[in-house]
Write a structure and sequence with these properties.
This protein is of the alpha+beta class. The protein has 2 domains: 48 residues, no CATH class; 32 residues, no CATH class. Helices cover 26% and strands 35% of the residues. It has 2 helices and 4 strands. It starts with a strand and ends with a helix. It binds zinc ion. The site of zinc ion (ZN) has 8 residues, from loops.
């Protein structure tokens, strides 16, 4: 992950991280362009949503859906 300085656009270094909520962190950053800028700033990093759910979640979801179907349809889906 690359963080850039909001002032000069140079690469910034993450100096520390503070978790402020579940899946939300504040990144304390320092601009690497020390001669011309030298800004330090805080930026946020947050989880937004899955593009694909974790494999375990998919299997659990499929199992719970199948369990709610009538037995004959469950057997049909399983090829039995
Ligand atoms: Zn800068």
């Amino acid at each position: 992950m690359r963080v850039t300085c909001p002032h000069c656009g140079s690469k910034a270094i993450i100096t520390s991280r503070e978790n402020v909520a579940d899946n939300v962190s504040e990144l304390y950053c320092s601009c690497s362009n020390t001669k011309e800028c030298g800004a330090t700033f805080v930026t946020s990093l947050a989880f937004k949503h899955y593009l694909n759910p974790p494999r375990g979640d998919t299997a659990q979801l499929a199992a719970s859906l199948i369990k709610n179907l009538p037995n004959n349809i469950q057997l049909d889906l399983l090829g039995l």
